[in-house]
Amino acid sequence: MVRRAVGGAGAVRGAGVKGTRRPELRLPVLERYEEGGLEPDGDYDGLEFRELDLSGQDGAGARFMDCAVTGCALDETRLPRARVLDSVLAEVRGVGTDLAGATLRDVELTDARLGGTQLHGAVLERVLVRGGKIDFLNLRSARLRDVVFEGCVLVEPDFGGARLERVEFVDCALKDVDLSGATLTDVDLRGAASLEIARGVDRLAGAVISTGQLLDLAPVLAGELGIRVEG
Fold it and tell me: Which of 21, 116, 122, 179 has a 20 to 30 A CA-CA distance from 136?
């Protein structure tokens, strides 16, 4: 059974920037999940979680393979060290969802409404985040490779100490980003609808930005370099 094809359209960007490889998921026929809550170290394969209230549930260390999570509430849901593989999360919502140290590989997250999501120390590979709004996303010390943020709003995302490789921002708003101590390689910010960097502007080496973005960031860059601009 073929579940995904990586690469495809959009895999090549401007000169000198390696394009991202997006997940292209083909889920099998799914079975509706009817078991109620989550379990620590649970094994969930080929299941559809639809419009369930998973708030406060403990799924630490669980594995989700070929799953669809649609319209579920994830307030304070505990999923540290979880593995989410070849799966789709659509229209999920919640505050304080804990995915610290989790692995997300070949995942699509669409139209999410999340706040304070904990992904510090997580590994994201071939992940597409499309639409929705995520406030105070904690990706400190996370590893992101082949990740696309598209058409979404990220308010105060924290990439402190994270490693970003082949990460692309397309038609999304980035508000008060923290890049302190981050390492960027082939990160394409040119398509961001807005780009506001609160901390870590000195970590932009390894990223590509547009001329307009450079002009917008000029005051922040001048302040970082200790340059006084008058007149």
Answer: 21
Do residues 54 and 35 make contact, with C-beta atoms less than 8 angstroms apart?
no
Closest CA to 86 of 120, 58, 130, 45: 45
Widest Cα–Cα separation across the chain: 68
CB 213 within 8 A of CB 192: yes
Contact (CB, 8 A) for 56 and 74: no
C-alpha–C-alpha distance, residues 165 and 147, integer Å: 8
Say how many C-beta atoms besides its own lie within 10 A of residue 51's C-beta. Answer: 9
Q: At 18, is the pLDDT very low, low, confident or very high (cuts 50, 70, 90)?
A: confident
Query: 173 near 193, Cβ under 8 Å?
Result: yes
pTM confidence score: 0.89
Residues 111-157: tens digit of each pLDDT: 999 999 999 999 999 999 999 999 999 999 999 999 999 999 999 99
Strand partners, 110: 90, 130
Q: What is the DSSP letter of 20?
A: P
Q: Identify the three-state secondary structure at position 223.
A: helix
